[in-house]
Amino acid sequence: MFSDVDLFSNVAEGVESISSLIARYTIFEKLYLHEDYEATPWLHESLRKLYAAILTYLARVKSYLTGNSWSMCLTAVVQERINLSNIKSLC
Question: How many secondary structure helices (H) and strands (E) does the chain include?
Fold first, then answer.
């Protein structure tokens, strides 16, 4: 079983990773999505999937931080750890 400190640490690490991803892909968008490249539609779709996964992750983290029951929180955080790996695989 995770302690409160472990849970909060996992959430903090996840949010830090997400902020890094957002910064990285903001630059990516500015560099590559203003031109009419052949791959532009594919890049747009990939970014939509990435941002949707990020928003889902952040919504679940917010749910955890705003006080769901502990069993729900534990399940959400463990699941988010898996989901964060999925988000990183999209990059």
Answer: 3, 0
